[in-house]
Design goal:
Length: 178
């Protein structure tokens, strides 16, 4: 379908909890196609619907040759062991900070036929599942940073050329998706 513009830090859609997908018709199929096309760009691991201006519970992933999407995802399991590595976000371009996440994660949701979907991952895939699910709750990875690192990140953001740039118009409407 289309590679969509990414909403940037400061856009309210990124901090607003998303509505569940309730209509699995053509508009949802178009949204999923856009999510998959947009995440397929080089260097992208995951993309949540609010990052393209749509406030519904949907995300796509593209990690180590695994590509897909989940509608109405919920984190079902997180391992007790952790990974602490650099994490970034398409909505906070060019900045990476150490972020603690579970080493393994399981997400449960549905597909376009409203059939159950389970996605399991470890390492980068687990990080992606947690990161994208956070987006759907209106949480950015910056919210998970240690206090000192978060202050540094916010200072760095204020120095970015993209900070304070206008957002790309009103979000497209998807009646019946939420």
């Amino acid at each position: 379908m289309a590679i969509r513009d990414i909403r940037i830090f400061g856009d309210p859609v990124l901090t607003t909890p998303c509505d569940p997908v309730t209509d699995f018709g053509p508009r949802t199929r178009a949204l999923v196609a856009d999510l998959l096309d947009t995440v397929a760009e080089p260097g992208r691991a995951g993309l949540a619907a609010p990052q393209i201006g749509v406030g519904v519970r949907a995300f796509s992933y593209n990690v180590d040759g695994r590509t897909g999407y989940v509608l109405n995802p919920e984190l079902a399991e997180l391992s007790d062991d952790e990974q602490d590595g650099e994490e970034g976000c398409l909505s906070v371009p060019g900045l990476w900070y150490p972020t603690v996440r579970a080493q393994r994660a399981v997400v449960r949701g549905v597909d376009l036929r409203n059939e159950p979907v389970v996605v399991r991952g470890e390492g980068l895939m687990a990080r992606c599942l947690q990161h994208e699910t956070d987006h759907l709750a209106g949480t950015l990875y910056l919210d998970r940073l240690q206090r000192r690192v978060r202050r540094e990140a916010l200072r760095d953001i204020r120095g970015q050329e993209w900070f304070g740039a206008p957002t790309p118009g009103p979000a497209p409407t998807f009646p019946g998706l939420g």
